[in-house]
Amino acid sequence: MPSFTLPKVSPSVEVTIPVNITQDELLAFRPFKDWLATLQKSIKVQKSEATHAFYDKKDPYQLRSINVHAVERFGSRIGFVLMETVVQNAADPRPLPGIVFLRGGSVAILMIVRPEGDSDERFVVMTQQPRIPAGSLTFYEIPAGMIDESGTFVGAAATEIREETGWRVPQGELVDMTEMALRNSTGIESHLQKAMYPSPGGCDEFIALFLWERTMSRKELAELRGRLTGNPKEREKIKVKLVEYKELWREGARDAKTLGAWALYEGLTRDGILK
């Protein structure tokens, strides 16, 4: 298979790639660039910070090689990359576990709706949709997607929410709960994404957890609940539902995004950071 040496990296790192991706495409793939930059900073911190759990100035871990096993495309665009890396130091010939599934970051939003005149009663927007990797056709979770270049929440869940409720969610109305929680963090790995990592043992994916709140009249809320509990549309693949906030931890117990957002909301509220 084709191979090349990573540019501007010392010690040298050999990269082996399959024939369906070029060197330029891999180096331009945003998740690969983010992962490599983050790992290089982590290696640098290991050598320079005496408080690091694995501090070793003389024999730190180093990235030795990358073997790209598979590339999945969405049309011409690269979607996922599966690769095997070798990260080790000279004293131990056994590399660290290094199989990496690259897919990049996303966002998830805790959408809370309150009836006017009642600060305690709350409802949360959730979706049910097929999640084939989990073996599920009705997986319960809070809405997830991306923030596009115009600063608007987009994706399949955002589209369905907009169709069902008429709501558009601009970035200016979002509260970044992960950033708020990490704002005063003193950890030595502050270069990691200000986000939640749902599966750091095998995947680079990171999810920023946002809060969005809206107040509605009880009449509007009742009408919305009626629409969302009606018969599903033909060929509908995402179902939008309202769940009582007090049941959120139970309804979303299988979903890391939901549990993470719930925990952040509870902690930030408890500490008076969220009003």
Automatic annotation (TrEMBL):
Keywords: Hydrolase. GO terms for biological process: nucleoside phosphate metabolic process; ribose phosphate metabolic process. Residues 102-266 form the Nudix hydrolase domain. GO terms for molecular function: ADP-glucose pyrophosphohydrolase activity; ADP-ribose pyrophosphohydrolase activity. It holds the Pfam family NUDIX. InterPro entries: NUDIX_hydrolase-like_dom_sf, NUDIX_hydrolase_dom. PROSITE patterns: NUDIX. Its cofactor is Mg(2+). This is Nudix hydrolase domain-containing protein. It comes from Cladophialophora immunda.
